[in-house]
Amino acid sequence: xxxxxxxxxxxxxxxDTYALELEDAGPVELxxxxxGLVKAVSNxxxxxxxxxxxxxxxxxxxxxxxxFLPGKLLKSNLLNLGILDEVRTTLADINxxxxxxxxxxxxxxxxxxxxxxLASCFMDSIASxxxxxxxxxxxxxxxxxxxxxxxxxxxxxxxxxxxxGNVWEIRRESKACDVHLFGNVYMKRLANGKLEPVEExxxxxxxxxxxxxxxxxxxxxxxxxxxxxxxxPVSEEAKYHNLGxxxxxxxxxxxxxxxxxxxSGRLVRLAQEYFFVSAGIQSIIRYYKKLNLPxxxxxxxxxxxxxxxxxxxxxxxxxxxxxxxxxxNWEFAWDITVKVLSYTNHTIMAEALEKWPVYLMKRVxxxxxxxxxxxxxxxxxSMQGIxxxxxxxxxxxxxxxxxxxxxxxxxxSHSTNGVAKIHSDLLKTIVxxxxxxxxxxxxxxxxxxxxxxRWMQLANEPLSDVMDELITDSWRKAPQNLKLLMNYQNDxxxxxxxxxxxxxxKEELASYILETTGIQVSPNAIFDVQIKRLHAYKRxxxxxxxxxxxxFDIKDNPEIDLTPRVFIFGAKAAPSYSYAKSIIKVIxxxxxxxxxxxxxxxxxxxxxxxNYNVSLAEKIIPAADVSEQISLASKEASGTSNMKLxxxxxxxxxxxxxxxxxxxxxxxxxxxxxFGLTEKEVYNYYENQDYSSQKIYDEDExxxxxxxxxIDGTIPNIExxxxxxxxxxxxxxxxxxxxxxxxxxxxxxxQIDHDYKxxxxxxxxxLANIANAGGFSADETVKAYAEDIWQIExxxxxxxxxxxxxxxxxx
Length: 811
Ligand SMILES: *Cc1c(COP(=O)(O)O)cnc(C)c1O
Known about the structure:
The chain is α/β, with parallel strands linked by helices. It has 2 domains: about 55-70 and about 105-450 and about 780-800, 3-Layer(aba) Sandwich (Rossmann fold); about 450-675 and about 745-770, 3-Layer(aba) Sandwich (Rossmann fold). It contains 32 helices and 25 strands. Strands 1, 4, 7, 8, 11, 12, 13, 14, 18 and 19 form a 10-stranded mixed beta sheet that branches. Strands 22-21-20-23-24-25 form a 6-stranded parallel beta sheet, sandwiched between helices. The protein is globular, with a radius of gyration of 27 Å. The relative contact order is 0.11. The chain binds pyridoxal-5'-phosphate (PLP). The site of pyridoxal-5'-phosphate has 12 residues, from helix 6, helix 23 and helix 24. Belongs to the glycogen phosphorylase family. It catalyses: [(1->4)-alpha-D-glucosyl](n) + phosphate = [(1->4)-alpha-D-glucosyl](n-1) + alpha-D-glucose 1-phosphate. Pfam families: Phosphorylase. One of its GO terms (cellular component) is cytoplasm. One of its GO terms (molecular function) is glycogen phosphorylase activity.
């Protein structure tokens, strides 16, 4: 597209839609017009892509995830279409700032954190690698809550992201399907002696898909992310004459559950899970039947991935559709189901491993419950004489009137993977060891990755420009080529350029901090960043304990030689997670105390930026010097903000947890700061039950002073929260071993303080992190999934043909 064409198109759209001339349009009209233009460009490629999949008979993967967290799409779409620069300069010609337009777009925040963001990074990478893959999820009317602070407390406001309409989605009424909930089911014996399920008194809801094009990076591929929204079927309208009853139905896809790593056991959540699973499976089978292939070929054309346990009902739902709706027998249907499905485990935290009470499942999806019972019965039977009774009992689906969803996903699929080496090993040796005994061949590792295009090319243009200058722009298509940067480790000019690029982003963030919080920070200070959901296991509190240590150090010795540091937090707490909210409150109060104490001479500042989301991450990450990845070893399955920060030249301070271990292996011991207990030491404490935080406290004056600050009025306005936190650390024996790791953490921080003073030394470390981040590209991750688990192959744009089939959209 030329500049003139872009201008002409924009003019036309502004006239057609808003009756405005280009010169009179505001950012909102311009954003929607530009979005429409982008959509028109990508729709052509989208149509070609799916016709291509159809004519080539490509096997496709369907990635089922209850969360997607794409953030904003305008710039990403422009970049991937290869027209970002043209559009930017065209707009500049008419005095419009692309950034201003881009800011009109609301973040699509249909996820809580890492899980949803991973799904979206995968969508980007799957399309960019030319892989035939589709997302399947829920179109929540309200995304993750907006976070504000009032008196230091988190306040949650609704996220009305659809208020002005979503420019990227296409409502596909013709692809809607019915989903049945509630009612009852009984088995009827037919004349031929076979049993047939009869379902009665069900509530039928309409699932309407909204499709969004997932545009590949400059390769002509556009895949589909399909999100389902609930509606009342026209045929049922008459039943719902009162508004309250209508709301009950419509509530099904109204809100995203704001819990992260917490099981959220409520009826609506279970109904949500079944709703998007059933609609997705039905539409896949509908598509498959159009191919006119025998059932046994299903697994040659379709792979379905279960992202965490929320979509685990894929197992019984696929069984139901194959048996009840298409007449397959159990054995045949089961064989197909196991071949088609695969599952990723995302956590070892017990409270996040989903279990549903039998009574609830029976009530919400009675037929699905029947099938689950039968899967359980057959599993137990098939294991007799092969494995010991106790192992069979521990691995079955049904235990103590509960359904273990992870067990369902493992038994009903051919692959179970963890998301980092240590995590996959823990699954095999501890968490899912019994299943590893039963199905050793099903277990594998796929270390998470990130869409490096978004986190570098879009988020950090100054650094991207330096990279182009130093190593040419091949890294943009092939992230592995970032490695070439290693050739510049001793090049002082290159190091200086990298340093200057970082400074640009730090200055931008400093302005943002001033605007949003009124806090003045110096871009020359160390920007020390911890951004992630607020969770006890992630140990934001340990970060605060260290900040308080520095506070007392400066108070005791105002002349102390500390490198000025700004501690930056971003984190939402689940609204029901009161301990996490207390931590937010105490960080905010400590921040207030520190930022307003002139005697500290700006040596330390603490900034808690509200409403952490993808867009805020894109502002913070490029400006970070230090990346805080300090979870208790064994608790963080992988982490992905660790990868984003590394890619942007932040140096990591970390425990040996999740992907931190692989980051350490990639950058080398000199370019990362490791501290703390190992996973083995943590498990030893569990085994020996010999951890005593009280004992550590009693013998440690420094920790006494820091902990007492929570209850002796040193930190103001935290009477309740301070006591709660103090008690968690002493009375309740410090579940995440903060006190045990504290001094080693402080030691590592001191080393950072020391090393940062040597600008060249520090910049070399930073360079090594950028250079070795290519291995964490989600492109690599999805290629491994494609080869090992999904058995799908890339289709390249050069094989693009005009569609010859009048086939339907691929699902
Ligand atoms: C990457 C990302 C996360 C995940 O962060 P972790 O530190 O890996 O938990 C969460 N939220 C947002 C908005 C992200 O971009």
